[in-house]
Amino acid sequence: MKIVIMRHGEAETFAQTDADRALTKFGRSASRDVAQLCKQEGIAEFDKVLVSPYKRAQQTWQELEGIFSAKDLQLCEDITPYGDSETVVEYLNAIIELEQLDSVLLVSHLPLVGYLTADLVKDIAPPMFPTSGMVCIDYDTNQQRGELLWHLKP
């Protein structure tokens, strides 16, 4: 199964709260560009998409939904910048098994995206994620271990 993890696009520096920071024009276009690269890698449809409730992640998904299709979209409070990667990995394993998923996309934030990647792949340091950065992991649910297939950057 494929797990794709994406960091939101470039966002404004300031807003009323961190959760309210909106994407910049560059953040929108870079997110679309990376999604197109992902599509060129052969991934354009997801069984489930999990998106952080933060504005910049929501806006990133809005840019992607014209490129990707999703059978199920879910707002996920656990994938904010302060989310716990072990909890998210446990949740992923549960929904993958329960719902028989073949592909999942997460649109999230630093530092969580790096920690998630390292927890899913094992034996790697958390990779650096620029804004709009994306990784694809070929994940074996039986072994609960993945292999990093590629890392796309704008």
TrEMBL record:
One of its GO terms (cellular component) is cytoplasm. One of its GO terms (molecular function) is protein histidine phosphatase activity. This is Phosphohistidine phosphatase SixA. InterPro entries: His_Pase_superF_clade-1, His_PPase_superfam, SixA. It comes from Vibrio ponticus.
